[in-house]
Amino acid sequence: MVILKSKHEIEAIRKACQVVAECHRTIAPLIQPGITTNEIERIFDEIILKHGAKPYTKGYKGYQYTTCASVNDVIAHGFPSDKPLAEGDIVTIDTVAELDGWLGDSAWTYAVGKISPTAEKLMRVTKECLDLGIALAQPGNRLGDVTSAIQQHAESNGFGVVRDLLAHGIGRDLHEEPNYMHVGKPGKGLRLKEGLVFTIEPMITEGTYNMTIDADGWTARTLDRKLAAQYEHTIAVTAEGPQILTAQ
């Protein structure tokens, strides 16, 4: 069941989302060759706790970290580590903060030093996919309007759209309805209504969209071990248009 949120509830969710946004604003200038994803993990922890919030994913279904840190061919759910990031890497940092019982969720892909033209294009197109999807998150539109725009833009640039990991509604729970893939057909799927709060989080791949899961049960990698990128915002559908609650 889709749980529509009141304006008051959307503002409460926005507060949690802005804790996540501050995390991303803080680390953006710090991601350089030599930093470790464990260092990024500690920074996120400090910011979230400073605001009286909780790192929601720590302990979620056995996951042990505040962040997911996904490097190069890792699509999502990579573990933070003490391995330094290297020149040319790309890394996606994802986190969820809980504040007063409400959740905010955002992921962002960062370049580490100078990256390849392919990586640059992948990051650019993935961010464009997010922006195209957000623009269509209007009352009366269908979810397929959002997802088809993302799919068309990614595939027209020669990239793949991950099917096996889903975007989702969000509020007091992390995975509310709708749970959906970033592919589809215009005019199909759930009709978007004022008060819907959900994530748009395209995971775009350099090659195949098929993936594998590592032996740790979490780390999702591209099957062909080519690059993946992801940008995610938490969005509220309102009469005034889409509101980006995790805006940085």
TrEMBL record:
It catalyses: Release of N-terminal amino acids, preferentially methionine, from peptides and arylamides. It is an enzyme of class 3 (hydrolase). A divalent metal cation 1 binds at D94, D105, E232. Its cofactor is Co(2+); Zn(2+); Mn(2+); Fe(2+). Keywords: Aminopeptidase, Hydrolase, Metal-binding, Protease. InterPro entries: Creatinase/aminopeptidase-like (IPR036005), Pept_M24 (IPR000994), Pept_M24_MAP (IPR001714), Pept_M24A_MAP1 (IPR002467). GO terms for molecular function: initiator methionyl aminopeptidase activity; metal ion binding; metalloaminopeptidase activity. Residues 11-239 form the Peptidase M24 domain. The keyword Metal-binding applies. GO terms for biological process: proteolysis. Its EC number is 3.4.11.18. Substrate binds at H77, H175. Removes the N-terminal methionine from nascent proteins. The N-terminal methionine is often cleaved when the second residue in the primary sequence is small and uncharged (Met-Ala-, Cys, Gly, Pro, Ser, Thr, or Val). Requires deformylation of the N(alpha)-formylated initiator methionine before it can be hydrolyzed. This is Methionine aminopeptidase. It comes from Cohnella ginsengisoli.
